[in-house]
Amino acid sequence: NSKQRKSGKLPPGPYPFPIIGNILELGQKPHQSLAKLSKTYGPLMYLKIGYLETVVVSSPEIAKDILQKYDQVFSSRSVPSALISVGHHKLSMVWLPMENQWRKLRRICKEQMFTLQKLDASWDLRQEKLQKLFEYVSQCCVNSQAVNIGEAAFITSLNLISATLFSVDFAEFNSDSSQEFKDVVWGVMECVGSPNFADYFPLLKYFDPQGISCRTKFYFEKIFAIFDGIIDERLQSRGTSMKNDLLEALLDLNQKQEPEISRDDIKHLMLDLFVAGSDTTSAIVEWAMAELLQNPKKILKVRKELRDAVGINGLIQELDISRLPYLQAVVKETFRLHPAFPFLVPHKANADVEINGYVVPKNAQILVNVWASGRDSDTWSSPYSFMPERFLDHKTDLRGQDFELIPFGAGRRICLGLPLAHRMVHLMLATLICNFEWKLEEGSKREEVDMSDKFGLTLQKAIPLKAFPVKL
Ligand code: HEM
């Protein structure tokens, strides 16, 4: 069904219905439906979702063209209308086009938070949060209580990020008072992740038929009120004590005679970091544990490696990660099968570009289906099996160099939080595995762990994983 345009032939794709285009083809799990369609139409596919021109990429070779060879053209974003309605696209590093403001925010954030030195310097803040996770799981052992792994990992992720950002804990295990912040972050994620008709039919954005823009406004106001409170408090206490966190560094830049960053920039940046960093990290931890609970030999292998490296009851340090090849392989294998963002964060074409003999049209949204390439039998042997061993021999890297495995994206828009995420995922898994054995609920067989997923802003387990820890 390739159509001809003035600038060339569009990539092949299913025939679009008038007005609705191919919207019906997407279903509840677009990553899976589009992976299936790409078997028919190829790794570069064109669809119309309502009026939104969409190009789906499902092979490492074409992903490399999009994210590396032509990344200048494809590094803008297709912004959800809910975020436009609250003006987030004008200030947010995640959604700004690749222009000066985006460069500035990315540079500041990288320099102030994600360099090796900065991350090493803030390690003690994170260590404390891992200790809390350890204590919570130990308490569940004593009470013979099941742990909701995704929930525990989400609380820990929120706290790891809030510690690095503001030296504050936002969420507590077993506490209702911390529910509000969690709910607000979930609320924002739900608004951004829900399919919104206003994105596909431009006229509808004036009517907000699903109320998504209205809910987004509500959650943005709530979260910004929380951030305002934290910023005001910090401004007051700055004279007497200095903190070693991102907020302190950003306020230094804000208080200069010619401020490098505004208070609004700071609030939108904080929001981006929470939304981009919390749910993604906890989802991977939950998927990894779900895979390992079905593979007792593999979880034993991880535990042995950990205990050989850090000793019984030793708390793992960030520097230990490089000495844990099997744990690293488990994390890579989890990213291959369960990428947190199955389409990355949608990119957008700034101009017509010819790829593989087809034209990718200007303004099309680009979905790089990393979920599909992770399960492609042309690239991976036994693609549906969880086999961390495959990563022990060849050194596939997660950092955007090896296009068959790019859960963090690649090129200029690669995940800015990758160095922190990498540490967080390994450390949380190590904390859960090193000192605890895990049992499923009475009567559940390990091969019956439900592995179905739920599409949203991130790819979550449809049924949360609950398991009983036993202290070793
Ligand atoms: C397992 C955890 C994570 C995964 C899988 C992940 C994945 C991604 C992906 C796929 C992108 C989009 C790349 C693209 O557009 O091609 C992204 C962007 C981003 N991520 Fe992450 N991320 C994770 C954790 C984090 C953390 C912990 C932070 C910070 C606290 C973070 C901050 C960001 C930011 C700021 C961007 C936007 C970059 C830009 O548009 O310039 N991420 N992430």
Automatic annotation (TrEMBL):
Pfam families: p450. Gene3D superfamilies: Cytochrome P450 (1.10.630.10). GO terms for cellular component: membrane. It comes from the Eukaryota. Its cofactor is heme. GO terms for molecular function: metal ion binding; monooxygenase activity. It is found in: Membrane. Heme binds at C415. Keywords: Heme, Iron, Membrane, Metal-binding, Monooxygenase, Oxidoreductase, Signal, Transmembrane, Transmembrane helix. It is a single-pass membrane protein. Belongs to the cytochrome P450 family. This is Cytochrome. It comes from Forsythia ovata.
